[in-house]
Design a protein that fits this description.
Distance between the termini: 104 Å
Structural class: alpha+beta
Strand order of the largest sheet: 2-1-3-4
Radius of gyration: 25 Å
Order of helices and strands: HEHHEHHEE
Length: about 180
């Protein structure tokens, strides 16, 4: 009985090793969807950003908040955690499938009837209270921020497949100084 069990286990182990060691690696294509903020140096430290003019600091604050929002709402798919990996040897078909994913995300990002546009998201962030009891975003100047919503093949920035420009306008919240008396 022991010999039968051992021989069955040996056959199973040999079969498992044969299946895993002889398996060819399947070809695949690797894509990333992200943003590139125009005029923003992503290498600046927080100390360096704090030394900038109020207008530039606000631009960096908006870029930072918007990046987090895009990540949290699944519009950014980059790095080692969320890239798009499409299996198959047909590069053209892989590219087509990746472009469909990008176009769907772009369409969702551009939907006018999703309650708000990107400008509204920035205004809403100024009204929301964060975990520290302060607004999630505080702005002191008005301006605009332009970014490319891009799709790369691989990890090389030179391999851009698609790119769409967005401009986000922002301003500090205006608070009425005193309630207005209704006209009679």
């Amino acid at each position: 009985m022991k010999k039968k069990i051992l021989s069955v286990l040996a056959v199973l182990a040999a079969g498992f090793i044969a299946l895993t060691s002889c398996q060819e690696e399947k070809p695949y294509s690797f894509y990333q969807i992200g943003v590139n903020f125009i005029g923003i140096d992503a290498t600046l430290s927080q100390d360096e950003i704090n030394k900038l003019s109020p207008n530039e600091k606000d631009k960096y604050s908006v870029a930072s908040y918007l990046s987090g929002w895009l990540i949290n709402h699944d519009f950014i798919m980059t790095g080692s955690t969320k890239p798009i990996i499409i299996e198959g040897a047909d590069e053209a078909e892989n590219d087509r499938q990746a472009i469909v994913i990008y176009d769907n995300k772009l369409s969702k990002l551009q939907e006018p009837d999703t309650d708000k546009d990107l400008d509204d998201i920035i205004r809403e962030a100024q009204l929301k209270t964060g975990a520290d009891g302060k607004p999630e975003l505080t702005l002191t100047t008005s301006g605009s921020l332009t970014f490319s919503y891009i799709m790369l093949k691989g990890s090389n920035a030179q391999s851009t497949i698609r790119s769409t420009l967005f401009t986000v306008d922002y301003a500090p919240l205006s608070t009425p100084s005193e309630p207005q008396e209704p006209e009679l």
